[in-house]
Amino acid sequence: MRRPIVAGNWKMHGSREENAQLLSALIAGVGACAAEVIVFPPAVYLAEVAALAQGSAVRVGGQNLCTESIGAYTGEVSGAMLVDVGASHVLVGHSERRALYGESDSVVARKFVAAQAAGLVPVLCVGETLEERESGVTEAVVSRQLDAVVSLAGTAAFLKAIVAYEPVWAIGTGRTASPNQAQAVHAFIRGYFSAKDVMLADHVRVLYGGSVKASNAAELFGMADVDGGLVGGASLKAEEFVRICVAAG
Ligand code: 13P
Q1: Which of 85, 128, 201, 223 is most buried, most CB within 10 Å of its CB?
Q2: Which residue owns the Cα nearest ligand 1 atom 5?
Q3: Alpha helices per DSSP H over the chain
């Protein structure tokens, strides 16, 4: 059985006060929940959020990291720094990083490798735009995004990684993929790994992201190949997020 995961990507939201309130409500709410719960605050708040989460069931991750480990890279944060302040996970290749900050498949692959080298679990985000879906290339896009990482990191690297399928058209739009649409791509992703290593395919957790809410979480998480969610907007509301975590297990 794959243990479900619910991850909350706070994106560029929060303040010290709001984070503390959100986190304490979250810790109180997810105590008995079977899912692994991870929150991804903005980098400047990571140390404080990780300190607040210490000793609880909630884990903390970074939203991004540098491809390099140290040096003259103004404005960047290394994987080792994320670990140093208490992060265990990091998002890699979020569609906002790909679209707004020009992260190519090869940069994403390098970040994935840098994350693992620092001891972080990368959460590799993949997914197609609306235009790509409508032109029938969803699987080709997802394969290309996975291939870039597999060719640099190797297949076995996914034993210590998480995949998140986030169709770009469903992110922040309120337009969730239907459970069947999500399941079809999740099954495709599992099949992609299964063709390389059956054991790995069975083990790798594939999260769905894109307008996950308390009202649609149970149905999405009920699909055979959906192992939980990567939640944006709804992760900023403690009660809603706790309900999503409970729906996962
Ligand atoms: P929303 O849940 O706000 O659609 O965001 C999804 C996402 O991008 C999580 O990484």
Answers
A1: 128
A2: 232
A3: 16-29, 46-53, 79-84, 95-100, 105-117, 130-134, 138-153, 179-194, 198-203, 214-221, 238-248
Q: What is the pLDDT of residues 15-51, one digit of tens each?
A: 999 999 999 999 999 988 999 999 999 999 999 999 9
From the CA of 172, give the closest atom in ligand 1: 4
Q: Is the CB of residue 118 below 6 angstroms from any atom belonging to ligand 1?
A: no
Whether the per-residue pLDDT at 195 is higher than 90: the answer is yes
Dist. CA 60 → ligand 1 center (Å)? 17
CATH code of 99's domain = 3.20.20.70
What's the total number of domains in the chain? 1
Q: Is residue 207 part of a domain?
A: no
Does residue 126 sit within a domain?
yes
